Structure formats: structure tokens, C-alpha cells
Recover the amino acids of this structure.
């Protein structure tokens, strides 16, 4: 994606001993990048949400392992880096997936080769994520085309929650990728952007992205989505996800469940866009997903730009009142119209997921279809 006419990924290597990442805690008021030189830098960036979004978390963790191997390529150092990075965010399964892939790739190689192999593997994870998201966008574009044909030239109104654009991945995004492609194709689109309290990823990040790409959009309060659905002003919803269990339950940013309920009640299609690396086959249902509890400060305080251009954090709640801050909720599969993946669109169920991603033993006789 482009910022002021320059193409950026969210994370990229600098030579062979450091990586640069966009500091998303500074957006939308300032565009800054940070240099990550050690595994600990990557862990801190993930934990403090300098980088966020399940695919980007995985990519950053992969580079964390690669940077650790620059300092010490022993098995003990690999284990330490793995455990430190894994502890940063408990809900997003891409983190565990990327760390397992990196460790599996390195275990059977001598220490002298590990640094170079890790660097190449982390870069491969990033490149694959870009192509995966591009394929998600192409499959989702078909859904938007069909929906737009029913509008007789009127804008297609899409509601999204949190940020599942290119800032949540290495490039393109998941839920926003089809929207970018539809806009570029000339399909009239308009996006209702949930503010997504408490960290305001919608108002800060999704709106920043859409505005930069020229996509018409409107920021709305989190609680306004149901109203717009009732009044017939939402044609469909597309969200991302941090983890999908084997039965099709979806963990996503807190508030997603309420949007899915409102969509179901009003007959509005509700799609979830995801790379296959976000599927957690080890969990039977969403009841088993660990839900991250974050600091109540995220809820009780807010950061914004003052009239003089400075950025400040202010308290917005009654002094002394405690706060609870679950970062995610779980949307049951029964509320999801379908999954948009890199291999195509499927039903939100285990059989639907298996139709595109069969177990390894079945792939020789039952190959997955679709692009990607």
C-alpha cells in the first residue's frame, strides 16, 4: 500500500541484521517507524501493539527468531526466543504458527547455518502473507461484485470492525483487501468504520488506510452498527479474525460478536476473512480460546491530538473506577455467513474449512480447490 505516494509494507528488513516496522501506536497523527534489532525488540513491539493484527504479529515473531539467531544460534537460545515471543499475545494463533514454523525449520540444521536460514524463512513468511492476502482479496471481490450488481449503481455499503487492512498484515490486508480491489475496479463502495473502542483501531487505522487509498468511508460509534443495519444502510459486513477454531467459531476484536448478532437479526451477510494460518485445528470450539485481558488504562484513557497539534493522553472515566478490558470476544460459527480464505469461500463449519484445507493424509486424493 502507498503512503504519500511511496509503497510500504508494515515490516521490512534493513540489511541482514535489523528490521523496520511502522509504529502503529503513533497513527493516525504521526507516521513513524521503529528499528528492531533484537528478539526482545520484536517481543516488546508485539506486546505494546506497535505492530498488531494476527498475520503481522506472526511475521514480526518470525523476524524475532531470526534476530535471536544472529546473537546466539544454540538450541537454548532458540527455545528462549520462542518462549519470550509466544508469551506476548495469547489469542492470535498466527503467533504460535509462525514460531513453530521457524523452529521446525531450524532444529535440524547446524548452528553455523541457522542465522542465514532463519532470515530467509522470515522473509518467506512475509512474502507468502502478501500473496495470501492478495488471494483473499480476489475471492472476496467476487462477493462484492455480486452484491454490487443488486444496487443498480448505488454505493455498496460495507461495515467492518477493528482493523483488518494492510496495517494488520504485511500488505493488502484480509477484510479490507476485497474492498480495495472493488474500489480500484470502479465498483462504488462506502465503508462504515466502527471506531472499535477501546484502542480505536477502526477510527485510527482503518480510516487512515481507507482515506489514503481514496475509499469513501464514515467513522461510526461502535454501538451505531445495529441502527444502520436496521435502517437498511448496510449491505454486508466483513471482519478479520485472530483465531478460528475447528468448528468455525471466530475470535476477533471485542465487539465483533455484537455486530454478528445484529447482522443475523437484520438479514445482513456477515463474512470473516482469514488466512489459513489463523485456523487453530487443535481447538474444538471457541470456548477453548484464551481471551487476552489488557490494561484497563486502554479503556479509561484516550490519546488524541490537541488544537495546537500536540498529542496527549487524557483520562475520560470517573476517577477511581476500575475497568475490565477483554481484548477479544468469540462469534459462534452459526452467525457467520462464510469464510473468505486464500483458497476460496467456504461455509463457517469444520466441513466447510476441510473442503478447502483437508488434512494432509487426504490431500493426495482430495486436493483443495481455488486460487491462491
Amino acid at each position: 500500500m502507498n503512503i504519500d505516494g511511496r509503497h510500504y509494507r508494515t515490516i521490512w528488513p534493513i540489511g541482514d541484521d535489523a528490521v523496520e516496522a511502522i509504529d502503529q501506536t503513533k497513527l493516525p497523527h504521526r507516521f513513524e517507524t521503529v528499528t528492531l534489532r533484537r528478539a526482545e525488540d520484536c517481543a516488546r513491539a508485539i506486546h505494546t501493539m506497535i505492530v498488531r493484527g494476527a498475520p503481522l504479529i506472526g511475521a514480526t515473531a518470525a523476524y524475532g527468531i531470526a534476530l535471536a539467531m544472529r546473537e546466539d544460534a544454540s538450541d537454548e537460545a532458540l527455545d528462549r526466543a520462542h518462549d519470550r515471543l509466544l508469551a506476548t499475545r495469547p489469542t492470535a494463533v498466527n503467533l504460535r504458527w509462525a514460531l513453530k514454523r521457524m523452529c521446525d525449520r531450524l532444529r535440524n540444521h547446524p548452528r553455523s547455518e541457522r542465522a542465514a536460514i532463519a532470515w530467509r524463512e522470515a522473509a518467506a513468511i512475509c512474502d507468502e502473507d502478501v500473496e495470501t492476502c492478495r488471494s483473499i482479496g480476489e475471492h472476496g471481490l467476487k462477493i462484492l461484485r455480486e452484491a454490487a450488481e443488486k444496487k443498480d449503481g448505488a454505493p455498496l455499503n460495507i461495515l467492518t470492525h477493528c482493523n483488518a487492512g494492510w496495517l494488520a498484515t504485511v500488505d493488502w490486508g484480509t477484510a479490507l483487501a476485497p474492498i480495495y480491489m472493488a474500489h480500484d475496479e470502479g465498483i462504488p463502495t462506502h465503508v462504515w468504520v466502527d471506531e472499535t473502542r477501546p484502542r480505536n483501531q477502526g477510527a485510527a487505522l482503518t480510516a487512515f488506510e481507507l482515506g489514503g487509498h481514496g475509499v469513501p468511508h464514515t467513522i461510526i460509534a461502535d454501538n451505531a452498527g445495529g441502527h444502520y443495519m436496521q435502517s437498511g444502510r448496510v449491505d454486508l459486513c466483513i471482519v478479520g479474525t485472530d483465531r478460528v477454531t475447528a468448528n468455525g467459531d471466530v475470535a476477533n476484536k471485542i465487539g465483533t460478536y455484537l455486530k454478528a448478532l445484529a447482522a443475523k437479526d437484520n438479514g445482513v451477510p456477515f463474512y470473516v476473512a482469514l488466512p489459513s494460518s489463523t485456523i487453530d485445528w487443535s481447538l474444538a470450539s471457541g470456548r477453548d480460546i484464551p481471551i487476552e485481558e489488557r490494561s484497563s488504562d486502554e479503556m479509561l484513557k484516550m490519546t488524541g491530538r490537541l488544537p495546537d497539534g500536540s498529542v496527549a493522553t487524557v483520562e475520560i472515566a470517573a476517577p477511581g473506577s476500575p475497568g475490565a478490558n477483554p481484548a477479544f470476544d468469540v462469534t459462534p460459527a452459526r452467525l457467520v455467513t462464510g469464510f473468505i480464505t486464500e483458497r476460496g469461500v467456504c461455509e463457517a463449519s469444520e466441513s466447510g474449512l476441510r473442503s478447502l484445507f483437508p488434512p494432509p493424509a487426504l490431500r493426495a486424493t482430495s486436493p483443495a480447490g481455488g486460487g491462491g
The two ends are 19 Å apart (CA to CA). The longest strand covers residues 189-194. DSSP finds eleven helices and 18 strands in the chain. The mean pLDDT is 94.
